[in-house]
Amino acid sequence: MIFKKDEVIKSTSSYEELTEKMRRMINKNSPRLITTLVNFWNAQENVITYAELEVAIANGSIDPATIEKMQKGYSIFVQKYLAPIWAAAIEESLEELYEKFPGFNQDIVLGSIETWTGAHAAELITRITTDQKRAINAMIDYSVTTGAMTPYELARAIRPVVGLTKPQAMANLRYYETLLGSGMSKDKAKKKALDYAAWQHRYRAKVIAEHELAVANRYGKYYGVKEAQQRGLMGVVEKKWITAGDGNVCEACMKLDRQQIGMDELFEYKGRLILGPEGAHVHCRCILIYVEV
Which of 41, 166, 248, 284 could form a disulfide with 135 if both were Cys (CB 3.0 to 4.6 A apart)? Predict the structure, then answer.
């Protein structure tokens, strides 16, 4: 993904080989993170007690102290489990620089990587906690407004969806209500809703794991190339956007495909400015290649 002046990409298949490298990295590292995330959310159910949820239902929203408790749990998870996965993805992103420039090692870019990791961790923890708060409050508001459940029943419905987004949590709640409306017993409906929640958690964990690995990998390469420039190992460099090249590429990424701009310039799509390593959206599978010009 790093090309010197005399290196030329000769065919579309060469681009496919580059995106395949990203896929291999994600496939290798994501299963462990997916399992860890699901296990973490299962444990998080026990962080919120039924008593706390019943108080939240009575007050119309989740208590800030409960959210803070969950946020601390996410902070521990990120530092203990996610940070090492980021490190693995970043390390892999730098392998090409190690090969091209003997003596180049991760210590060279450590400061930049630590700065990015700290900022990204804080943003991720805030976003996931906010998603959690919105999901729980939406379920409370919906149930209180419709009178569909008693506080105890709603508390039982909320705990299994801890970790899901607002749309996912509401989909689970409506699924449960639909089953009850069809004449199914509460116990059987609850079992099916639990099975659905397990699938939702697995799906969300997959999206988060693959997204975080891709982002860390892209940022590792970006900061590695910048450091190579600063050390005089590379001259003027431009970055080029490359999509996964399959039928699942979205409109935004198709528009950005093969665009080549300056190292610190921003890609633009419908008024959005994108540095590049963060991707165009959640679960973006695109890569950046760097060309010395």
Answer: 166
